Amino acid sequence: MPAEVARQVAQTIVGLTKAPAASNTVIELGAGTGQIGNDLAAAAEIRYLGLDLSHPMLAEFQSNAPSAAALVQADADAAWPIADRAVNAVFMARSLHLFSIDRVAAETLRINAGAALVLVGGVKRDKNSLREQMRDRMRSLLGAKGKRGRGRGAAAN
User: Fold this and answer.
1) Whole-structure pTM over 0.85, yes or no?
2) In sequence order, what are the residues at sequence separation of 6 or more whose Cβ sits closer than 8 angstroms to the Cβ of residue 99?
3) 45 near 19, Cβ under 8 Å?
4) Is residue 144 within 8 Å of residue 155, measured between CB atoms?
5) Which of 63, 61, 39 is CA-nearest to residue 51?
6) Residues 6 or more apart from 108 whose CB is under 8 A from it?
7) Mean pLDDT, all residues of the chain
8) What is the pLDDT of residues 4-14, one digit of tens each?
9) Which of 41, 101, 129, 144 has its CA 20 to 30 A from that of 25?
């Protein structure tokens, strides 16, 4: 995603999560390399915590991250290493399909500091883009073998 789009997404999240509480914390599940998280971590209005299972992805994120970025290697399908009622918003971009919906719901309710704000983002690509053509071809090949991909529409239960 273009850097300007990532910046706009982060600004929107910051605007939606403004709270009078002294601790305005946003957690990102599947923080990855920090495409959006870098801008969230740089925002003075919030405290940012990024969780990801992949150490290499977090290492890449850390190499470009502002000093305010708190990054934790953790499995979002296990208990989250966050205190009860400590977070104002949970954010996921292009990652919800990787997680157990039941776990995300339970942990979000547990860590919710009162705002109960859950933000889920995705990417809509032009149907004629190379990436979409490749995805369609892969799904076609998997379907011919009686298999199903793990992408859109195949969310974990």
Assistant:
1) no
2) 29, 30, 76, 77, 92, 156
3) no
4) no
5) 61
6) 90, 116, 118
7) 84
8) 988 998 998 88
9) 101
The Cα 96–Cα 122 span in angstroms is 9
Residue with tokens 């109960």: 116
Q: How far is CA 75 from CA 31, 36, 46, 65, 104, in A?
A: 12, 19, 23, 21, 11
CA distances from 124 to 33, 51, 103 (A): 20, 24, 26
Query: Of 51, 11, 17, 15, whose CA–CA distance to 34 is shortest?
Result: 51
Produce one character per residue of 109-119: b if its CB has 16 or more CB atoms within 10 Å, e if not.
eebbbebebbb
pLDDT of 83 reads 93
Per-residue pLDDT tens over the stretch 112-153: 887 667 777 766 667 787 877 887 888 888 889 888 766 554
Task: Give the distance between the most distant pair of CA atoms in the chain.
Answer: 55
